[in-house]
Automatic annotation (TrEMBL):
GO terms for cellular component: cytosol. GO terms for molecular function: 4-amino-4-deoxychorismate lyase activity. The keyword Transcription does not apply. This is Aminodeoxychorismate lyase. SUPFAM superfamilies: D-aminoacid aminotransferase-like PLP-dependent enzymes (SSF56752). It comes from Saccharopolyspora terrae. It comes from the Bacteria.
């Protein structure tokens, strides 16, 4: 299922071509995007997603159409979505730098997509992951801002290659590690640990995306009396913790059951508590 809207709020045929062959998004993956979960017509964390898209565009030094245009296109998709048969939707906002050699006008659209059965199954039964070296040190972001480490750019080929590598190794997903052996993030997710009544995640300053799902979970957890810490931690912490999750808008909180073929603690009651904390935001 696909519903497509342009930034003026009009609907378009999702099966018809939309971009020119010389669009820089097509030719170089030059642009930024967001994926937002919408449940029963209600977008989750819309403000933080739009804030992050503006930040990504700033890091890319490209103009971004105004916020109202994204809200208008997103609402057009939500209004046209068949909520009775599909109660949840992934809403993609995509913006490219525009035509190669053109006048610099960015091109964007909003597209609603259904959440696949594989994602839902992993949410329910958890995942096995492998750790893969991402090849950079946690301080690289400061030293080399042009690498756009914490921006959500359209260049996800490396992230997708890592997921294929996981599949070849018989796993479902990936946790990237830094060259120092600390934990970064998943190719499309934030890593969250539980240690007693404390939740931990890696700081965006280490070059990971600031996750809106992790942000929502930590907000609710703090209100419920949990401690939270945003800090670099070694790969060994994945094995010593009371639970490990991959967090992202569409997968929500997916529990990690094994890492590199070794089981990690994956308590059902704790998983339910974490999921309920996140859901209590909505
Ligand atoms: C690299 C990366 N890290 C983290 C996340 C999680 O972000 P969010 O919770 O805002 O969806 C994503 C989302 O796709 C991602 O691509």
């Amino acid at each position: 299922m696909r519903v497509l809207a342009l930034l003026d709020g009009t609907l378009a045929d999702p099966e018809a071509p939309l971009f020119r062959a010389d669009d820089l998004g097509v030719m170089r993956g030059d642009g930024c995007f967001e994926t937002i979960l919408v449940v029963d017509r209600e977008p989750r964390e819309l403000g933080p997603h739009l804030d992050r898209m503006e930040r990504s565009a700033r890091l890319l030094q490209m103009p971004l159409p105004e916020r109202a245009a994204w809200e208008r296109a997103g609402q057009a998709v939500i209004d046209a979505w068949p909520w009775d048969s599909e109660p949840e939707m992934g809403l993609k906002l995509v913006c490219t730098r525009g035509i190669d050699g053109g006048d610099g006008t960015p091109h964007g659209f909003a597209m609603g997509m259904d959440v696949g059965p594989d994602t839902k199954r992993k949410r329910d039964s958890g995942v096995e992951v492998v750790t893969l070296d991402r090849g950079y040190a946690p301080d690289l972001m400061d030293r080399a801002p042009w690498l756009l480490l914490s921006a959500k750019t359209l260049s996800y080929a490396v992230n997708m290659a890592a997921l294929r590598e996981a599949e070849e190794r018989g796993a479902d997903d990936v946790i990237f590690t830094a060259s120092e052996g600390t934990v970064l993030e998943g190719p499309t997710s934030t890593v969250v640990l539980a240690q007693g009544r404390k939740l931990l995640t890696t700081p965006p300053a280490s070059g990971v995306l600031a996750g809106t799902t992790q942000g929502a979970l930590f907000r609710a957890a703090e209100q419920a009396g949990w401690e939270t810490e945003v800090v670099d931690f070694p790969t060994s912490a994945l094995f010593d913790s009371d639970g490990v999750w991959l967090a992202s808008s569409i997968r929500r909180l997916t529990q990690v059951r094994a890492i590199n073929g070794t089981s990690v603690k994956a308590d059902d009651a704790l998983h339910n508590e974490i999921v309920n904390l996140y859901e209590s935001n909505y």
